[in-house]
Design goal:
4-stranded antiparallel sheet; homotrimer; alpha+beta
Chain lengths: 241, 241, 241
């Protein structure tokens, strides 16, 4: 099972999910993949999850929790797509996976635990469901039609910063395959040209490139693009000069 | 085995404990539960550990290290409480667990490793002891009377902030079951009313609620309570208006 | 297998390496040892890795990635030293291990994956190689002479800060065994005297000591040496008054 959350690098919440899973599904290996998904931002997280989950093998089960409306009325979902399961809130987080994966099927989770806290469905509801799926057990859920819980207004590629890594590299929601590799980008009214890798630009020099998961990423050789351009999650990215 | 430390999210110290455990007790699964326990603050950590360890099943073994006096004269302890073991410094860290668990028994660890550094008992002493207990091996320790290494002056519930999570939610040391659910709290001279969950208050609105582990927690819907109220570990919390 | 990287505490990159290893070498236990090695600084990281890897048992396989020139012309290396393997970029990261370990042998990795991204050799090249070595499989590599990819100009002990832990303790690249235990150090024009452990100095008092892995470390009892002395990675340390 693969964890994808915005819980932050420390363990109060992730650790409780891990403890639950270790107790109830001890044979299921758990990979703490990402704990700094875009904070409280299912839209940006949806583009990140779609791009980065593609490299995981069929059979992977993602426990994905970016859930600012926990305790509200967004339903819980389990999406089957490309031989993988995605378990988490039906708040758009799986929109791009559903859109890009032919034959994907969304289910509303109808099972409820004996005790469901109002604020931590990751531990109380999503972890048990993902653990059951990983253990090959059935889960009470109902298939929903393709238009259930969709976000039709979201673009196919998001021309915004969706993630800033610890080096200060700024990842966009744009698949590099969808744009001309020679164009300049604009961020905060400044141009950023294309390069293939760090060693092609001088130290301190900015560039954009197709990152190792296929997204357009803005970087500075031996520096921080986020600092140099004042970027944060949601900063817009212009295509072309 | 479950790790509860103030070592921080990066791995220099936690990783060394994990490496030791992987070498000497490879069959024992280790959960890196919490690495941002209240820094150098066994008192606040004691309330957090007591509240959050309750959900773990009997048989759990906690390796708990918040140890500002390492190298001084505080003795090493192993506390048996409710079918769980708690291994760490006898500096008050287990005070609330001992107080709230009928039949708890404290032991002073008398075993010493061949090489005991003066500054990293987590790796050199507590991890080996916890590993041995997890593996079902005996450890040299001596039962101590109930009044050994106690902190009788500490309250049953601590009306202070004891943890701030990565969303900026501020957890207090007050069990919600001990107070009237309709009262207001005061923090930094401002009132905070009660709500059951995030969706009951408008974006930016503060509230307190019983969190998923039973503690009173102060939050802001889609915002940071720590920032809005200037809270940090140790900030006092008033009960009633 | 033991991870030593500068990827930061969140999981976008570490998680992808873990996912790869879980898929291809599921029987190999992985310890996420250190993810905040000196950022983009193979020189400082080399002294840290040499000092801290010594405590790991023979048979350990280190996947070590501090690689600011990824995509450039530095070759990939696998170093056998003292019964351990070190896999990562040949950019000096293994210089001190090679220098301090009699009989160490360096190899250039000649194997290449079907798909090698230009910016994430940790996932695409080093993780597969380390995984194969851990699984006991052969890897295409060629032994290189002792003078291959060396850094002869680097000192045997580095009189600089090479790591600052989450408490603010500042670790130097100086092995304590190489200096007189009674001398004062100077950092930012201020003296720091020797003590054996925290409890020997008053709260707020600075001191240096031999840390639990043999390096000279500057600390402040119940405080942050990094803040009190304005230290960062690379800050010079003077020996003697």
């Amino acid at each position: 099972m693969i964890l994808f959350t915005d819980f932050g690098p420390s363990g109060l919440y992730t650790g409780q999910m891990l403890a639950y899973l270790a107790e109830r599904a001890p044979s299921v290996p758990v990979i703490g993949w990402l704990d700094d998904a875009p904070r409280q931002n299912p839209r940006a997280a949806a583009y990140l999850l779609a791009a980065y989950s593609a490299a995981f093998p069929a059979g992977s089960i993602f426990l994905a929790v970016v859930d600012p409306r926990v305790g509200g009325d967004r339903p819980p979902a389990a999406v089957s797509a490309g031989g993988k399961w995605f378990v988490g809130p039906a708040n758009g987080l799986f929109e791009l996976i559903r859109r890009r994966t032919p034959g994907s099927v969304a289910h509303e989770i109808t099972w409820r635990p004996d005790r469901l806290s109002k604020t931590f469905h990751g531990r109380d509801l999503f972890a048990p469901v993902a653990g059951s799926l990983a253990a090959g057990e059935s889960v009470e859920m109902e298939e929903r039609p393709p238009d259930w819980a969709r976000r039709p207004g979201w673009p196919n590629d998001l021309a915004e910063i969706i993630y800033i890594d610890s080096f200060g590299n700024a990842i966009t929601g744009i698949r590099a395959s969808t744009i001309d590799g020679e164009i300049d980008l604009t961020v905060n009214k400044r141009y950023v040209g294309h390069a293939e890798t760090y060693s092609q630009v001088p130290p301190g020099g900015p560039f954009w490139y197709e990152n190792s998961n296929g997204l357009v990423e803005i970087a500075v050789n031996q520096g921080s693009a986020a600092e140099q351009f004042g970027l944060r999650i949601g900063s817009p990215v212009g295509l072309g000069g």
